[in-house]
What does this fold into?
Amino acid sequence: MARGRFITFEGIEGCGKTTQLLLLASHLRHRGVTVVTTREPGGTPLGERVRNVLLDPQLSPRPLVELFLLEAARAQLVADVIAPALESGKFVLSDRFADSSLAYQGGARRLPRATVQGLNELACAGVVPDRTLIFDLDVELALGRARERPSTSADNRRFEDEVLAFHRAVAESYRGLALAEPARVAIVDAHGTPEEVHERTLAALAGVLP
Ligand code: TMP
It folds into this structure.
């Protein structure tokens, strides 16, 4: 059986990537494609517990500890969900993946890139996205949305509470990733209606979709 396809959705909080992931999943399912959707941090029972720890504003993990937690959840997700789905020919869509660690822990928390890259490689065990989409939206607009959404609450807003400069550094780092790996990483303009962004998403996935 042919290996499946792996598409990852990236961007700062409030950029609309989750909405776009759901729109693409439904587009593919209407065409008879078997789709697995997942998210990071999370996607497994263990990963979802780690997610709660990572997002809790009461805790202050050091940058390296934050990275270890993310990579632990990632290793479990790759082994339990992503690699088996790809091996059985499925389409996997993930709301964030290893590039998030390069942008957040590398770009914004300033951990050495080689450290993040090395742990990413260990956790991903050879799994690399076929295409990564970075949804690019004005940072203040995105952050305003993220802070207002009903799912953002007192016990999960540790990243939303970071200052604007932090989110700008994340956005800048994402742009660098797209420049460094243009064949895999594409920037999608996330301004406009969900339908308009969906059309751009489909265009950015030319050659990857069935
Ligand atoms: P979400 O809001 O997109 O669900 O992501 C949860 C938070 O986790 C988000 O604020 C960014 C953060 N994060 C990292 O800092 N590094 C990572 O590698 C991942 C996967 C997420």
In short: The mean pLDDT is 97.
